[in-house]
Structure formats: structure tokens, C-alpha cells
TrEMBL record:
This is 3-ketoacyl-CoA synthase. Keywords: Acyltransferase, Signal, Transferase. Residues 331-414 form the Beta-ketoacyl-[acyl-carrier-protein] synthase III C-terminal domain. The lineage of its organism: Eukaryota, Viridiplantae, Streptophyta, Embryophyta, Tracheophyta. It comes from Linum trigynum. It catalyses: a very-long-chain acyl-CoA + malonyl-CoA + H(+) = a very-long-chain 3-oxoacyl-CoA + CO2 + CoA. The active site is at C166, H245, H335, H339, H368, N372. Its EC number is 2.3.1.-. It comes from the Eukaryota. InterPro entries: 3-ktacl-CoA_syn, ACP_syn_III_C, FAE1_typ3_polyketide_synth, Thiolase-like. Gene3D superfamilies: 3.40.47.10.
């Protein structure tokens, strides 16, 4: 009897162990390769071209031109970002379906071709496909477009997620990670980009016109797997991923929203509530994520600090700068990959986590070179770190994404081998980092934009000058 029980016990333990162990193996998520998109020369948007596009909008008056040009000059974007083709061709007010489709094709197929070529994995080996484009959903879907182009298998699981905003690619990775739990040894592809061709705002509401100044073309494709045999080929392994959603709060929900202005021009409204929403979401997210990544000592210090802080002060307006107060993230993390949405986001998060110029350099330079490419943005930052040969085996990367909703999605990757591929940065990495510019060359030409008192500017001649 005793022997029988013992046998039964060991049998059960063995199977339990196997089950747990296998589950763990399945839920591993390795990044085999990622490939960012680099536009063609003819789509480069420098400040002068931007100004030309702004001036083309006859709905605007002097005050609006001034506001827009000021934004462009101080945006942190450089002279080499890429715009959608229809905007460069002067058709931003009347986009057609083929504009959106060809924008998607350029980005998705270009990066996927490179992804398959570099990893030597065939499209027919892919088990899961996630396409993540916020603002464009044609029929048949974009996932079908990819399956059709690469003639993928009939049993492929496809997901097209849309409307998720800038932090979409992290949402997509979370989805893949969850799917991996029920699909062993699978290969998954995530295509993450934003469709800006049909979403150019042509009205005159200041709060809506902002997005035109910052959004640029770009995107990224990634190949992920939970097949342990491919571990040796992986570049990174997903350690943690935490998503925070503030959609239940009306102010947060409405702070970044697609809508029509009074005259019926469609566009994106960005309100002042955005910074507050970002601060709250970031703080809540850190509260969940931090215990999983920081050493105990630093964790205790943080808890103590928060406790003291709560006792000392009542209601302080939430700010992004203060969201990470008392945290010593550097104790567990070596690299910080912040969504290059704009200067204020990067600086805010940097201050919040006590980061220095070296830590923020990749995000700032990605904003300068490629602009705010929405969901793809994080991967250009990662590409910069790699091209600068900063990523060493065992290093941990903290990815921070914000998006409409309002959402804050963060994750931590562990680098699994020394990385040093030049990627999209290859031809220009040597000239980075750039020193901070004091005066934009553009400002010298258009000094009137900062001269609020002047109302006598001859717009026609200003227009001809650009
Ligand atoms: C997602 O794909 C399905 C079919 O594959 C399609 O019916 C649906 O409209 C797509 N949704 C979006 C938002 O693209
Ligand atoms: C991809 O989807 C996620 C979540 O579904 C969303 O947050 C993100 O914005 C999407 N990416 C783009 C580029 O729209
Ligand atoms: C896992 O990867 C190994 C090595 O490439 C491969 O031989 C094997 O077929 C893969 N397993 C599955 C289920 O695809
Ligand atoms: C960056 O672009 C996205 C649109 O894809 C927008 O939702 C977001 O607000 C932008 N970031 C900033 C700081 O403007």
C-alpha cells in the first residue's frame, strides 16, 4: 500500500512538474529580429517643405501660421523625417484609398522582406500574424493583405488590432505572448505602423492641427517565437509586460481623440489633459511593474519614500515629472526606450525617472531623425541603441509607450547576446548624437513667427519665400 501511494505521489509530482515547466517554456517570448522602415529620399520632409505644406492650407490666418511654424521649429524633429507621399504631392486634403494602401505596402512589405531574408525563416513557417495599424481598416483586412502577398499557410492565426494609438506595438506583443501560452513552439509576426496618409488635418483648430507637425511615416515588423530551440538566434527575451488603461476616466479618454471640428474637417484633438493622463497612467503602471524588476533594497526605499510622501502632502496635481519620484530604476535597468512622441514626453519621463542626457539620447535622436511615427517609434529608439553598440548580453531594456485611450504600456526586455547591427541607422549613426540646436536655421528666415506683436506680415511674400 505504502509503495503504491509513493508511486502515485511521484507520478503526480512528475506530471505537475512537467506541466509547470512546459507552461513556462511556452510562455517564453523571444524576439528573433526586428526591422524598422526607412522611407525613400523623395519622401523626406524638411522644415521648408513642412512650412510649404502649412502655407498651402488656405483655411489658416496669420495667428495659426505663427503657431504652427513655432511648433514645427521647436518640435525636436530634424530635416530628414519621412512624410506620406500624397502629402508631399499636395493631395493631403483629398486622399484616396490607394494612398493609404500604398503607404501600408511600402512599410509592411519592405520590412517583412528584410525580416524573412535576414532570419532565413520562410513565410510559410509563420503561425501567428498580428497587424497593428490604428487609423486604417480596409476590407479585406490588412492582415489578409500580408497573408496574400506572402502566401502564408491556411491555418495561420491572424489578428488585426486597430485604434490603439502609439503604444500599439506593446499591445501586439502582449497578445502574442498570451497566444504563445496555448501554442507551443510557434513563430509570430507583428507589423506595427500608423496610417497617416488619409489623416492629415486641414482645418484651423489649434488643438487639432498639432498632430500634423509631429506625425511622420514609419513602422516596424518583428519576428517572435516561443520555440526554445531558436533561443540561440534571438536578440532579446521579454521579461515583463504591464498594460495600464485609463479609459474609464472621461478626461483621460478624451485627451487624445479623433474628431471633426466645427467645419467638418476630421483630425486629432490633443488637449491639455494629455499630460495629466500620461502622468497618472505612468504612475499606476510603475506601481505594478516596479516590484517585478527592482532589487529588494531599492524597492523598500521606494515604498518608504511613497509612504512618507503621502503623509507629508495631500493632493498634488499629478505631473509626469513626479510620477517616478523616489524610484531608482537604474538599479534594475540599463537602457530606457521612451516613445518618441514629442519633446515633452521624453523630457517628462526622463525627469520622472531621474535619467541623464545619455539615457535620453536614443529617444531624442529617434525623434529628430524619424519624427513621431506612433506605434513604430519605440523600435527606432531600440535601433539607435543597437547601432551605437550599447546593447550587451544580459542588459535590460525598459520600453515605455503611451497612447490614446488613455494607455500606458511598458515592458522590459533582456538582451540575449551582444548586439551591434547598423540597421536603419547604419548610414547616419556616426553623425549622432547631435548637439542641441540653439537657433533653428529656419527661424532666421522667419523671425516674425516669434514676434507676436506683428500683424503686418505679408503672407503672400512669406509664402513665396519658402
Ligand atoms: C480585422 O480583420 C477582419 C477580418 O480578417 C475584418 O473583418 C475586420 O474588419 C478587421 N478589422 C479592422 C479594424 O481592420
Ligand atoms: C497597434 O495596436 C495597439 C493596441 O491594439 C495600439 O495601441 C497601437 O496604436 C496600434 N498601432 C498603431 C500604429 O496604430
Ligand atoms: C523549433 O526550432 C527548431 C530549430 O530551428 C526546429 O528544428 C523545430 O522544427 C522548431 N519546432 C517547431 C514546432 O517548429
Ligand atoms: C505621436 O503620434 C500619435 C499618433 O500616431 C499621437 O497619438 C500622439 O499624441 C503623438 N505624440 C505627441 C506627443 O504628440
Amino acid at each position: 500500500m505504502m509503495i503504491f501511494l509513493l508511486l502515485l505521489f511521484s507520478y503526480i509530482t512528475f506530471h505537475l512538474y512537467k506541466l509547470i515547466f512546459q507552461n513556462r517554456a511556452h510562455s517564453c517570448c523571444y524576439m528573433l529580429h526586428y526591422e524598422c522602415y526607412k522611407g525613400t529620399e523623395d519622401r523626406m520632409l524638411n522644415t521648408e517643405t513642412c512650412a510649404k505644406i502649412v502655407m498651402r492650407n488656405k483655411n489658416l490666418g496669420l495667428q495659426e501660421y505663427r503657431f504652427l511654424l513655432q511648433t514645427i521649429v521647436s518640435s525636436g524633429l530634424g530635416e530628414e523625417t519621412y512624410g506620406p507621399r500624397n502629402v508631399l504631392e499636395g493631395r493631403e486634403a483629398t486622399p484616396v484609398l490607394t494612398d493609404s494602401l500604398s503607404e501600408f505596402d511600402d512599410i509592411a512589405f519592405d520590412t517583412l522582406d528584410a525580416l524573412f531574408a535576414k532570419t532565413k525563416i520562410s513565410p510559410t513557417d509563420i503561425d501567428i500574424l498580428v497587424v497593428n495599424v490604428s487609423l486604417f481598416s480596409p476590407e479585406p483586412s490588412l492582415t489578409s493583405r500580408v497573408v496574400n502577398r506572402y502566401k502564408m499557410r491556411e491555418d495561420i492565426k491572424t489578428f488585426n488590432i486597430s485604434g490603439m494609438g502609439c503604444s500599439a506595438s506593446i499591445v501586439a506583443i502582449d497578445l502574442v505572448q498570451q497566444l504563445f501560452k496555448s501554442h507551443s513552439k510557434a513563430l509570430a509576426i507583428v507589423v506595427s505602423t500608423e496610417s497617416i496618409a488619409p489623416n492629415w488635418y486641414c482645418g484651423k483648430e489649434r488643438s487639432m492641427i498639432l498632430s500634423n507637425c509631429l506625425f511622420r511615416s514609419g513602422g516596424c515588423s518583428m519576428l517572435l517565437t516561443n520555440n526554445g530551440s531558436l533561443k540561440g538566434k534571438a536578440v532579446m527575451k521579454l521579461n515583463q509586460l504591464v498594460r495600464t488603461h485609463l479609459g474609464a476616466n472621461d478626461e483621460a479618454y478624451n485627451c487624445c481623440i479623433q474628431m471633426e471640428d466645427k467645419l467638418g474637417h476630421e483630425g486629432f484633438l490633443l488637449t491639455k489633459g494629455l499630460t495629466k493622463a500620461a502622468a497618472i497612467a505612468f504612475k499606476l503602471n510603475l506601481r505594478v511593474l516596479v516590484p517585478k524588476i527592482l532589487p529588494l533594497k531599492d524597492l523598500l526605499r521606494y515604498v518608504l519614500h511613497t509612504y512618507r510622501r503621502k503623509k507629508a502632502k495631500g493632493g498634488v496635481a499629478p505631473s509626469l515629472e513626479a510620477a517616478g519620484e523616489g524610484l531608482n530604476m537604474k538599479a534594475g535597468i540599463q537602457h530606457f526606450c521612451i516613445h518618441p512622441g514629442g519633446r515633452s514626453v521624453i523630457d517628462g519621463v526622463g525627469k520622472s525617472l531621474g535619467l541623464n542626457d545619455y539615457d535620453l539620447e536614443p529617444s531624442r535622436m529617434a525623434l529628430h531623425r524619424f519624427g513621431n511615427t506612433s506605434a513604430g517609434g519605440l523600435w527606432y529608439v531600440l535601433g539607435y541603441m543597437e547601432a551605437k553598440k550599447r546593447l550587451k548580453r544580459g542588459d535590460r531594456i525598459f520600453m515605455i509607450g503611451f497612447g490614446a485611450g488613455f494607455k500606458c504600456n511598458n515592458c522590459v526586455w533582456e538582451v540575449t547576446r551582444d548586439l551591434g547591427d547598423g540597421n536603419v541607422w547604419g548610414d547616419c549613426i556616426a553623425s549622432y548624437p547631435l548637439p542641441p540646436l540653439n537657433v533653428s536655421p529656419f527661424l532666421e528666415k522667419f523671425s516674425w513667427i516669434n514676434d507676436e506683436g506683428r500683424t503686418d506680415v505679408d503672407l503672400t511674400s512669406a509664402f513665396n519665400k519658402v
